[in-house]
Structure formats: structure tokens, C-alpha cells
């Protein structure tokens, strides 16, 4: 792999990413603006008179034409200022700045759960395809995929938090405040968010690895007398990794979406619960900003995934 | 007409008894009763500690003028009001130690408590009260209270602690109009929405939207010896089940509020759950009189008799919130028990009314409701089933609040289920809700406004200052509304509070404001 090649490739993908983000910003703005509902009405509730509503809409800038509203938002966003919440007036950048690290930490825990489930379970099922345990694992994956995240979260919170009292049923403790408390507060949300994706990935690892294991070079390696562990984990899995990493990248991008429910169930004030609240209250600026950040995260994860291909398979050349 | 200090306060009986018994058992002599009996009792209680309250809605702002559902319960920690209401629905002094209404009813004088300090260290006197008046009278900063003070014309300084307010016309309901008027520290006007600032027992330390708001004890609080707690942390739980789990696990001290139908289960498991002492809201079915067949009064009256309130209360509301057929809190003198019998579920009579209403019942009725509470869609389903049994075709439309309100105010409904304010501290309280507006913005009577009989009834009610007479006159207004059948009360909307074992001295006023200045932790 030529370093210059990777640099040029990443630069080109960077330009494409910027274009994607611009188009996404237009789409996100249009879609959020098309949502029926009115934040002024949410603020005033049942008691707001038509006069008050009119005044509040003007105060919030909602009486301006949509292109003007978009222009203001995007100009501010490019300057790093995401504006102020229409509902509570808090600076969106500040709120996002507080919430994003929480969602990233939750995603990290969920990612760990995914890896811990996907690789051992996937490799076992691929190498012992006819065993009873592999069949049980496949049944389990079906269950884990079917179980609603919301239900799973509530159940885990109730059983481990209320009945057994092993872990806190909800809430977030920062790492600085208490490392043990931080870990304990993220165990259940991490499992809730990662369990389903872990099963998706386990099935994918199983399928991908099974394909590679049927290749001639695996037979050759075994014929050479290499131990089974080295054949599977070093040679076969290494070759199966590219599609796995691609899917893992895509699934990791979905963590932000999945965090909406998980954060609500575990009362974690992250980006997901922020997005959920903002949609319910039609807090347009917050919704737009959070979705755009989610898209940006998705684009960055995919860029990183592309860059990883070269490291995983030296035959790949970037052009 | 003057105000007098409260002697016995609004503690729940159970708490009051526990507190008094505890003090007696410890051989502690209760301090001499001060102006507020409950605070004197609380002086025998433990001091310090952090109380964690779980709430299911986030604050919209820290400005007391923003009187939306989510904000109101926590405002008493930061702000004082001129008067507050006891659980016997009597006005009692708070920041105002005394008030006097002029004989002609055109002005009122308030004298403030002595030595009131603001959170910024200033003095709260007549000038500060007048500054608050002007702030609330301004459209930009008046929030939900702007229209409430519409007829309050001027504020004049009488002396350093006394202010006279002048009205454009006599206002028998003047105290109710300011019952939710929290006093802001003038030095905090510019930042009050985000940072708060008043004269209350706690200062705002930090507000993290969507997560928590932290209040810390205000050492300069004017009621000596209060508050008892060092800190109150109010944590937001978007999911009701998460709130209940946190309460059961003991990670929060107070759950505000528990879903009604879970109350029995929690009580059975040994948890202490109490409903608000005075209900001030109710679920109500409103009918769009502008649309056929609901423009026919007989059809509306039939629907009124088809609502099986007892089933709603027993099932969806877990038997906690009782059925109600009128817009008046059961604790008030305006409550008429006879109405509950007269307008009880009566499908046979309803069918007769529908038959006599003749042909042309129209097509499918659009039943609008929202997800403002988890119970609303479930109650709507019970009513839908009742109406369908009588041959009315009903389809339910459920919207989240942001989408619901525009549809409702545009009159895009035949039937609508929401929760509104009861007549609680004043007979006119219920008229604050849109369904009882007197003009063409009333969604049940778009463009035309409600019938003249309703408006005349309200005028008659407001023609006297005698509270007993006002409550009596309210009964005829309510009867008129029920006769016209555009609003059909269904059941109380009753907040229920999960109280941890250590929580003592918890108090909720009739407007659902949590008063934590006398609350303490027994641990």
C-alpha cells in the first residue's frame, strides 16, 4: 500500500463526505421542517392564546421563510454555533457537547458487548457447525434479534437493578466521579444496546468464516500441520475480516439511533434521549443538529473502515 | 377582605402525625407555633442531606412566568408567591404578610414580609414587586401569566414594603390570578430562564437540560430555620418505568409521579405512594359542536351518558383517580354530589336520546387525543367502545402533543380527550382551559364562541366578591355546561408521588407545587 495513495484516497473521500454532509443538511432541515407540529404550542400548551402564539413564533424566528431559517442555521453551524434550543433556550453546542461524550461511552460499551458476543460465538458456530451448542447459539441469535430493545432494557433494569440490586437500574456516573460507578452504570445499557447487534455480527462472522474455511489455502494450512487454532484465528479469520469490518462499521453507526431508546430507558442524558425529546417538542434546531452529528459520525466511521481495509489486506490499493 | 397567617399548614395527615408523634416520643418540646405551624414542627426534624426527586418531564425554563406543566411543580423551591393556598383551599400569606382589597374592588394592597432577601443578596421590597409586575405585564417576558394580569392596570409604591395594584374593573378572582405568580429577583431578570433566581428556600446551583436541576439551600432565606435540606437534586426520567425502577431500587427519594395503575402494585410491595391531596386536573371529553352530528344537542347529551367513568377509573386509573362528572374539585364548596348521579353512565337513556335525535348521525367520528399522559389513549379506547355499543362509529387519532395542539385548536376533531384544570382555588379556575374560552377561539365553538347562557353565567358568578356565593353560582354555570354537553368530565387526573422511607414533611399544594422547604430526611 502506498502512503501517498491512501492520502489521496482519503482526501477524495473527505470531499465526498463534505458534499454528503451538505446534502444531508438540506434533507434533514427539509424533513424536520415538514414534521407537523409547533414548538410554540408545546411551550404554551392548552392555555396559550392566539396572540401569545403569534408573538412566541415571531420571537423564536419561526415566522421566517424556510430558506431564511435554513440559511441562518447553516451559517451558524459552519461557525461552530448550533444556535439555542427553541424550548429551553440553552445553547445547542453546549448541550450537545455534554451529551455526545455520554453516547460515545455508551456506544463503546455496546461495541465491546458486540465484539465479545460476535467473535467467540461466530467462530464457534463456524468451526463446530453441527454441534448442539452451535444450534443453540443460532436459536439464541434469533431471539436476541427479535427482542425489542425497549423491553429488554426495562427487563434488565428491573431484574438487575430492582430485584437483585446488583447494578443501578438507571442513571449515569461520570468516570471522573467514580470509575467503578461509571462501569456499573454502563453495564446494563451497554448490554441492551449491544445484544442485538452482537447477534447480527455473530451470524455474519459465522457465515463469512465458514466461506473462508472452505478455501484451498485453509486445507493447505491444515495439511502443513498447523494447529486448528492458528488456522482459524490467524489465517481464516484474518481473511474473513474485511466484510466483517464493513458490516461492523455500518452497525456501529446505528448505535446513535439505538441509543434513543436505551438512553430513555436508563435515564442517560446522552445524544439519543436529547434527540427523542427534541422530536417530541419540535425543538427543530436540536433535532437538526443531533441528526447531522449522527450522519457525520456515520460518514467518519465509514471513512475509518475504508482506511482499515488496507491494513487488513495488504493487497488492497487505494486509487 | 384581609389575609391571615396559616396555623396548621398542608402536611398530609399521616406525615403530620408521624412528625408530631416522633417529637413527642423523643420528649422534644415543640417550639411555639410561628406564623407557619408546619415549619415550627419541622424545626424538630433532622437537618441536612440531599433529597433526590425523579420527575418524568424536563423543565422548559426556570422562569416562573413560564407556567407550563413541566415547570410548575419545582418552582416553589426557588420562588415565593405573594399568597399560597392550603389544602383546605384557603389563601395564606407567603411573601405577602397581609393584603387588603378596597371596598370598591378596584384595587388591592399587599404588604410584604420583613427582611426578605433575594438570592443575589438584595432586599425584596416594594420596588422589586413593582419590577416583577412590569416584567409580567410585558408581552415578551410575561409568558403564560401575561394574559392573567391583563386587567391589572398599575402598581404603586405605598411604602418600602407595601404596593397597591389597581384593576381596570373589579376582580373577585384576583388572588387566584396571581396564585402562580412567582417573584423573581430583579437582579436575575436577564438570566432567569436559564439560571433562575428568586427569594425561595433554595438557589439553583445547576440546570443540565434533559438530565437534572440541582437546588442548594439558600442560607439567607427569610423563614428562619428553613429549609431543612442542604440540596435537592431533580433528575429527569423520560420513561415512566425507569422512574419507577429507580424509586423501587432506592436511587431516588421521591418519584414524581407514579403511573396511576401501578400504585396498587407498589403499595402491595410495601412502597409508600400518596396521591396529591387536592386534585386540580381532570380528564375531559370535549365535543366539536360545529360538526354534525354533534351540532345536535341530543347527540351530545347522549354521548355524555355513554361515558362509563367507573370503568375508566377502575381499569386505566387503577382505582386511584375517581370518576368525576363536573369541572370542580371534590374538596371545594362548589362541588355538587347530585351531578355525579344525574350524569352517571346510562346507555339506555342515551339510546333514547340518539333515537329522538333522528337520522343523520353522520359518518365516522374523529376522536382526537394525545400522548401527553400514557392514560389518554387508553381512556379514549374505553370511550370509543362505549360509543360504538350505542351505534356510533368512532375512529381514534393519537398525536404527540406537538402535533395534537395545532389539530385541536384548528377544530380538526369531533371528539377530543385531554386533561384540563378543575375549579380548585377559585370558581373560575376551570375557565383558564381552552375548552371554556368565551370567544370564537374555543375549539368546541370555533368562530361563534359558546352560547350566551354560559357567558352570562360567568358574568353573574363574577358579579360578587362573596366566595360562598361565588361557589354557589358556579353550580349553575356547571349545570349549564353539562346541559349543553360540549365538555364531559370523565375522571380526575391525579398525580401520585412515590415517597421513600426516609422522606418526611413532604407537601404538595393545591396547584401541584412541591413544597420542599419543610421536607427532611429521616436517615
C-alpha end-to-end distance of chain B: 44 Å
User: How many domains would you count in the coordinates of chain B?
Assistant: 3
Give the helix proportion of chain A (percent range): over 70%
If classified by CATH, what would the architecture of the largest domain in chain B be? Answer: Roll
Low-confidence stretches of chain A: none
Number of strands of chain A: 0
| H/E series of chain A | HHHHHHHHHHHHH
Mean pLDDT of chain A: 87
Largest sheet, strands/sense/barrel of chain A = none
Strand content of chain A: under 5%
Please outline what is shown here.
The complex is a heterodimer of chains A (319) and B (523). With 319 residues, chain A is mostly helical.
How would you describe this protein?
The complex is a heterodimer of chains A (319) and B (523). The longest helix of chain A is centred in the middle third of the chain and has 36 residues, at 92-127. With 319 residues, chain A is an all-alpha fold. Chain A has two domains: 16-78, no CATH class; 92-280, MetI-like fold, CATH 1.10.3720. Helix content of chain A is 77%, strand content 0%. In chain B, the strands form six sheets. In chain B, strands 8-9-10-1-11-18-12 form a seven-stranded mixed sheet. Chain B has a five-stranded mixed sheet with strand order 15-14-16-13-17. Chain B is an alpha+beta fold. At the A-B interface, helix 2, helix 3, helix 5, helix 7 and helix 12 of A face helix 8 and helix 15 of B.
Amino acid at each position: 500500500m502506498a502512503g501517498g495513495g491512501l492520502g489521496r484516497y482519503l482526501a477524495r473521500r473527505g470531499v465526498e463526505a463534505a458534499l454528503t454532509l451538505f446534502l444531508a443538511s438540506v434533507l434533514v432541515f427539509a424533513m424536520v421542517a415538514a414534521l407537523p407540529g409547533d414548538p410554540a404550542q408545546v411551550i404554551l400548551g392548552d392555555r396559550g392564546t392566539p396572540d401569545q402564539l403569534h408573538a412566541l413564533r415571531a420571537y423564536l424566528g419561526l415566522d421566517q421563510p424556510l430558506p431564511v431559517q435554513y440559511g441562518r442555521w447553516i451559517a451558524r453551524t459552519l461557525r461552530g454555533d448550533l444556535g439555542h434550543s427553541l424550548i429551553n433556550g440553552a445553547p445547542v453546542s453546549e448541550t450537545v457537547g455534554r451529551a455526545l461524550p455520554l453516547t460515545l461511552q455508551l456506544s463503546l460499551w455496546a461495541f465491546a458487548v458486540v465484539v465479545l458476543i460476535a467473535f467467540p460465538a461466530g467462530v464457534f458456530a463456524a468451526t463446530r457447525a453441527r454441534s448442539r451448542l452451535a444450534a443453540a447459539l443460532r436459536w439464541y441469535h434469533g431471539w436476541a434479534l427479535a427482542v425489542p430493545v425497549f423491553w429488554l432494557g426495562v427487563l434488565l433494569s428491573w431484574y438487575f437493578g430492582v430485584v437483585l440490586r446488583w447494578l443501578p437500574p438507571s442513571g449515569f456516573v461520570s468516570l471522573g466521579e467514580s470509575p467503578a460507578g461509571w462501569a456499573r452504570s454502563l453495564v446494563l445499557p451497554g448490554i441492551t444496546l449491544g445484544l442485538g447487534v452482537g447477534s447480527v455480527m455473530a451470524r455474519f462472522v459465522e457465515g463469512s468464516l465458514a466461506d473462508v474455511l472452505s478455501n484451498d489455502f485453509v486445507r493447505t494450512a491444515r495439511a502443513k500441520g498447523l494447529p486448528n487454532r492458528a488456522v482459524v484465528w490467524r489465517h481464516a479469520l484474518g481473511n474473513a475480516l474485511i466484510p466483517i469490518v464493513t458490516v461492523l462499521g455500518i452497525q456501529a453507526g446505528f448505535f446513535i439511533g439505538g441509543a434513543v431508546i436505551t438512553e430513555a430507558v436508563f435515564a442517560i442524558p446522552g445524544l439519543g434521549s436529547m434527540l427523542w425529546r427534541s422530536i417530541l417538542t419540535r425543538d427543530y434546531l436540536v433535532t437538526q443538529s443531533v441528526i447531522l452529528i449522527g450522519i457525520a459520525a456515520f460518514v467518519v466511521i465509514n471513512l475509518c473502515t475504508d482506511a482499515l481495509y488496507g491494513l487488513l489486506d495488504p493487497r488492497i490499493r487505494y486509487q | 377582605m384581609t389575609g391571615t397567617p396559616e396555623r396548621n399548614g398542608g402536611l398530609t395527615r399521616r406525615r403530620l402525625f408521624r412528625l408530631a408523634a416522633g417529637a413527642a416520643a423523643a420528649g422534644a418540646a415543640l417550639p411555639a407555633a410561628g406564623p407557619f405551624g408546619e415549619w415550627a414542627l419541622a424545626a424538630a426534624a433532622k437537618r441536612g442531606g440531599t433529597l433526590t426527586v425523579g420527575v418524568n418531564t424536563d423543565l422548559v425554563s426556570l422562569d416562573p412566568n413560564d407556567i407550563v406543566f413541566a415547570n410548575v411543580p419545582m418552582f416553589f423551591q426557588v420562588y415565593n408567591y405573594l399568597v399560597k393556598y392550603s389544602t383546605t383551599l384557603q389563601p395564606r400569606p407567603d411573601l405577602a404578610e397581609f393584603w387588603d382589597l378596597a371596598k370598591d374592588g378596584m384595587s388591592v394592597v399587599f404588604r410584604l414580609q420583613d427582611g426578605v432577601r433575594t438570592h443575589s443578596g438584595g432586599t425584596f421590597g416594594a420596588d422589586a414587586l413593582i419590577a416583577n409586575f412590569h416584567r409580567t405585564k410585558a408581552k415578551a417576558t410575561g409568558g403564560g401569566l401575561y394574559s392573567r394580569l391583563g386587567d391589572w392596570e398599575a402598581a404603586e409604591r405605598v411604602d418600602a414594603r407595601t404596593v397597591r395594584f389597581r384593576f381596570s374593573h373589579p376582580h373577585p378572582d384576583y388572588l387566584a390570578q396571581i396564585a402562580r405568580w412567582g417573584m423573581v429577583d430583579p437582579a436575575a431578570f436577564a438570566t432567569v430562564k436559564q439560571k433562575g433566581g428568586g427569594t425561595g428556600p433554595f438557589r439553583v446551583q445547576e440546570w443540565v437540560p434533559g438530565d437534572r436541576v440541582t437546588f442548594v439551600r439558600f442560607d439567607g432565606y427569610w423563614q428562619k430555620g428553613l429549609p431543612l435540606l442542604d440540596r435537592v437534586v431533580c433528575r429527569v426520567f423520560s420513561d415512566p418505568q425507569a422512574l419507577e425502577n429507580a424509586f423501587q431500587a432506592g436511587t431516588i427519594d421521591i418519584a414524581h409521579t407514579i403511573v396511576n395503575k401501578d400504585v396498587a402494585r407498589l403499595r402491595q410491595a410495601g412502597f409508600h405512594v400518596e396521591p396529591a391531596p387536592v386534585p386540580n386536573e381532570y380528564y375531559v371529553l370535549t365535543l366539536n359542536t360545529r360538526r354534525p352530528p354533534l351540532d345536535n344537542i341530543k347527540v351530545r347529551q347522549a354521548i355524555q351518558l355513554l361515558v362509563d367513568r367507573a370503568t375508566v377509573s377502575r381499569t386505566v386509573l387503577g382505582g386511584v383517580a375517581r370518576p368525576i362528572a363536573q369541572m370542580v374539585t371534590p374538596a371545594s364548596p362548589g362541588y355538587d354530589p347530585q351531578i355525579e348521579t344525574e350524569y352517571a353512565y346510562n346507555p339506555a337513556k342515551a339510546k333514547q336520546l340518539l333515537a329522538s335525535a333522528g337520522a343523520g348521525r353522520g359518518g365516522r367520528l374523529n376522536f382526537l387525543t394525545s400522548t401527553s399522559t400514557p392514560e389518554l389513549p387508553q381512556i379514549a379506547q374505553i370511550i370509543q367502545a362505549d360509543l360504538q355499543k350505542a351505534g356510533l362509529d368512532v375512529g381514534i387519532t393519537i398525536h404527540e402533543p406537538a402535533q395534537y395542539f395545532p389539530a385541536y385548536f384548528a377544530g380538526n376533531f369531533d371528539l377530543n380527550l385531554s386533561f384540563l384544570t378543575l375549579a380548585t382555588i377559585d370558581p373560575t379556575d376551570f375557565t383558564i382551559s381552552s375548552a371554556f374560552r368565551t370567544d370564537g377561539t374555543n375549539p368546541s365553538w370555533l368562530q361563534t364562541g359558546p352560547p350566551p347562557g354560559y357567558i352570562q353565567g360567568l358574568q353573574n358568578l363574577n358579579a360578587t366578591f362573596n366566595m360562598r356565593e361565588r361557589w354557589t353560582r358556579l353550580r349553575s354555570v356547571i349545570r349549564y355546561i353539562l346541559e349543553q354537553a360540549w365538555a364531559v368530565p370523565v375522571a380526575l387526573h391525579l398525580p401520585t408521588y412515590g415517597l421513600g422511607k426516609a422522606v418526611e414533611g413532604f407537601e404538595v399544594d393545591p396547584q401541584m407545587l412541591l413544597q420542599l422547604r419543610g421536607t427532611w430526611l429521616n436517615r
